[in-house]
Amino acid sequence: MIDEKSPTHDDKPIYKIVVVGDTQVGKTSLIRRACENRFDAHRIEAIGTSLRKENILVGLTEEVPVTLDIYESTDYRRVSPQILYADVLAAVMVYDVTSPVSFFGLYRWKQEIQRAYSTIPLIAVGNKNDLTSIVPMSEAQGWATFEGIRFMNASAATGEGVAEIFQQTAQLAYEYQDALQNQWSYLR
Ligand SMILES: Nc1nc2c(ncn2[C@@H]2O[C@H](COP(=O)(O)OP(=O)(O)OP(=O)(O)O)[C@@H](O)[C@H]2O)c(=O)[nH]1
Ligand SMILES: [Mg+2]
Q1: Nearest to residue 110, comparing CAs of 88, 83, 91, 138?
Q2: Domain assignment of residue 141, yes or no
Q3: Which protein residues are within 6 Å of ligand 1, measured from CB?
Q4: CB 52 within 8 A of CB 16
Q5: Which 3-state string (H, E, C) describes 157-169?
Q6: Strand order of the sheet with strand 150-153?
Q7: Whole domain around residue 158: which residue ranges?
């Protein structure tokens, strides 16, 4: 029997996005905060598959609601980049503002994503903004600007900036999808 309320029978677009970053930077915490509005101060098991965030309004001339299907990279359960990033329409690269190592890790994440799919739009996020930052914000912002990547600060603990990250990511995904569709119709 078909369940009319099932999300699979909903005609709203679903965009696959991925949240990457070194271990313990707060990837799961950001996704949980965005999708379930909760935070756990203890280490959280990685999300097995993905969580969904529904009804984000995006658009260029008019606003349409979309759903984000949010995946997380895990260092210890590596899948091939070609699989993890397949059909991804945007990637959120997270570092921990108290961990310079995790900030330098963004360079590697960026390379990995772009080696798999060169044109995926990227957003850099400094998480744990509720703590005293060790990575200077001006440096992070400068790097992101140089690389042509959007930069945002957030705290999964307080929730500050979290909705904005996924709003911006959904908008970038929408624009990327639009560009891909135009490219295909041009080639046809
Ligand atoms: N103070 C503070 N702690 C945070 C924040 N976000 C996450 N944490 C803590 O940082 C630790 C790691 O968070 P996770 O969300 O598990 O990090 P992760 O990047 O998913 O880690 P892995 O999946 O193991 O790679 C946990 O103890 C969280 O409670 C934040 O914004 N502020
Ligand atoms: Mg995790």
Answers
A1: 91
A2: yes
A3: 21, 23-29, 40-44, 46, 74, 127-128, 130-131, 155-157
A4: no
A5: CCCCCHHHHHHHH
A6: 50-58, 64-72, 14-20, 88-96, 122-127, 150-153
A7: 12-180
pTM, two decimals, is 0.89
How far does CA 32 lie from the centroid of its chain? 12
Quick one: tokens of 100? 């310079």
Q: Is residue 186 part of a domain?
A: no
User: Residue 1: inside a domain, yes or no?
Assistant: no
- CA pair distance 168, 150, nearest whole angstrom: 9
Q: What is the mean pLDDT of the chain?
A: 87
| 7 DSSP assignment | G
State which of 19, 29, 73 you would mutate to test the pocket of ligand 1, scoring each by most atoms of that ligand within 8 A of its C-beta.
Answer: 29
Q: Which residues pair with 56 in a beta bridge?
A: 66
Distance CA 153, CA 77 (A): 27
Residues 6+ apart with CB under 8 A from 106: 21, 93, 95, 124, 143
The CATH number of the domain holding residue 107 is 3.40.50.300
Residues 80-136: pLDDT tens digits? 777 788 899 999 999 999 999 999 999 999 999 999 888 999 999 999 999 999 999
Number of structural domains, the chain? 1
On whether residue 17 sits in a domain, the answer given is yes
